[in-house]
């Protein structure tokens, strides 16, 4: 497995699969090195996309691993890789969120993330905000 920053050749792959980002922002995220691609041999198997909460705290917006590759430690490796990159950039805290009805909250807690609050939107389940000192 390798984890590298997305480039323009990843644009279509991301656009076809990531339904949680406005299409006009994908190119910007690629240019800003805010998408990591996950490869197994010669195939893309997922991505991780992030931004900055308050333009100051790295915030993991989305991690996706194709179904056949899940539960094998790849998600953990990607999150740890990202945390290491953020630490190298001088950050000491990272954030993410997940809906309360998603299993991901347990995954993040196992990685040392702690609940820091929540957001309730009218048409969505409770969004749990998680934070971690790195």
UniProtKB/TrEMBL annotation:
Which molecular-function annotation in GO is an example for this chain?
acyltransferase activity, transferring groups other than amino-acyl groups
Question: Does Thylakoid appear among the keywords?
Answer: no
User: What Pfam families does the entry give?
Assistant: Acetyltransf_1 (PF00583)
Q: What is the designated name of this protein?
A: Acetyltransferase (GNAT) family protein
According to its UniProt entry, this protein's organism is Paenibacillus pabuli
Magnesium found in the keyword field: no
Q: Which UniProt keywords apply?
A: Transferase
InterPro entries given for it? Acyl_CoA_acyltransferase, GNAT_dom
Q: Where is the N-acetyltransferase domain?
A: 1-134
């Amino acid at each position: 497995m390798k984890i590298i920053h997305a480039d323009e050749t990843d644009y279509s792959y991301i656009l076809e699969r990531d339904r949680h980002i406005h299409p006009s922002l994908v190119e910007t995220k690629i240019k800003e090195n805010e998408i990591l691609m996950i490869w197994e041999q010669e195939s893309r198997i997922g991505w991780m996309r992030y931004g900055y909460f308050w333009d100051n705290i790295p915030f993991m917006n989305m991690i996706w691993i194709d179904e056949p590759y899940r539960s094998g430690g790849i998600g953990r490796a990607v999150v740890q890789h990202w945390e290491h990159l953020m630490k190298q950039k001088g950050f000491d805290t990272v954030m993410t969120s997940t809906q309360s009805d998603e299993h991901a909250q347990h995954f993040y807690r196992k990685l040392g993330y702690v609940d820091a609050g929540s957001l309730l939107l009218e048409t969505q389940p409770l969004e749990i905000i998680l934070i971690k000192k790195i």
